[in-house]
Specification:
With 94 residues, the protein is an all-alpha fold. The chain folds into 2 domains: 1-32; 56-94, no CATH class. The protein has helices at 2-31, 62-73, 87-93. The chain is flat and about 60 Å long. The two termini are 48 Å apart.
Amino acid sequence: MRRRTLWLGAISLVLLLVVAGLLYLALRPALEVHTPQTPAPAASQSPATSTPPPDPFALLSQDTMLATIETLTSIQPYSGWRNSASTGEAEALD
């Protein structure tokens, strides 16, 4: 009986997440915030030279992420899980 209750709970959780995801996708256009367009400066005024914010995703690459994962997984690979207060944890922290 306990196993059946566990399965029902797991199925309910999955269904809840699916419904929440579908609701998010349906309501996403309504939730987007639109900033008003600023009027163009007049010809007598000098336009403000503002630079757009940098794109953080431009700093990411597949090679750097894989290299980081490889570096982190190579810290004492022979010792299994890194327990707290172990040398592996200290190496990962460094």
